[in-house]
Amino acid sequence: MRKKITPLYFLLGLAALACQSPQTDKEESKTDSLTTVQPVYITDPVLYDSDDPAIWINPNDPSQSLIVGTDKDSIGALYVYDLRGKIIDSLVRRDILRPNNVDIGYRLSLGSDTVDFAVTGERLTSRLRFFTLPEMRELRAPGIEIFKGETGPEYRDLMGVAVYTSPKSGKTYIIAGRKNGPTDGSYLWQYEVVSVQGVLDLQLVRQFGQYSGKNEIEAIAVDAELGYIYYSDEGVGIRKYHAEPEMGNEELALFGTEGFKEDHEGISIYKTSETEGYILISDQQANLFRVFPRQGTPDGPHIHPLITAIPVSTQSSDGSEVTSVALGADFPRGLFVAMSDDKTFQIYRWEDLEQVILQPQSK
């Protein structure tokens, strides 16, 4: 059942860590003593297992934007919510075979049509499924198979999905991850979305990305303006690469390698300007979102020290998304939405998270 909660403000933030260090008992105690940020809305629950949300910005009326979330089950679904967390039943799409992640693309040209779309990975079939927005009409049913030719254990079990539209070329790409994969620098596959006589198709353009082999890679996020891809190598850290295929496959950064309780999960990028902002990473088992500078530091754009950590009411959050676009009276400076392990997604006002980030840090 959807409910509205009055947001709480904070008197104290976490100590900033210019150099990251393992989380000590003292640090955990300090984190536990902070007031937890509360959402303004909690969505109606999905049937089985909420996993990852995305935000579609309505270009005509941002207050009528939508949240799309996955129900991760063998008879799963894409749920569509209004900004108060109410399910829009006519837009829910069921019988998707274990959808993990979902992302949004804008103004894709298909013949004479231009469409916005949601894309999700169907893990049990290794297919990407595409739906127009806001209608949720499926494109190219029943999806497009990827990771063709892979034979390793769980090498075709599709999980992470992210959309990148190049500001330089206008091309749209899908970056896909899986449950397991090689450790030779080819874990992620990047596909260009193309139109063949007005019909959506995919062309593989590169295989890239280091993988520790420790757990899995699920969370993928793209900073389109700066041209970077970030992904969580769970239990290891956040890896950073160029988003443009022709820029090469060199790893630009591995950060957030210490201080996390266990798994690195959902990645969200809040933009305060064209070049600055915050990268929020779910510290899943600690129920925190750790915050890093989007722009790096004066010593380099690929240096991302921890700024602070935000305690949130979500439980064991896998996926999250954020926007800085004003979405009506409830969200004048944007919205943050995160999956919670109670079959819901929790919807936060950005100002309530920023209150923690901007607090003077104790020494």
Automatic annotation (TrEMBL):
Q: Does the keyword Kinase apply?
A: no
What are the UniProt keywords, alphabetically?
Signal
Which residues does UniProt assign to the signal peptide? 1-18
The family database entries (InterPro entries) matched by this protein are listed as: 6-blade_b-propeller_TolB-like, B-propeller_Phytase
* Residue span(s) of domain BPP: 27-357
Q: Does the keyword Signal apply?
A: yes
Q: What's this protein's name?
A: Phytase
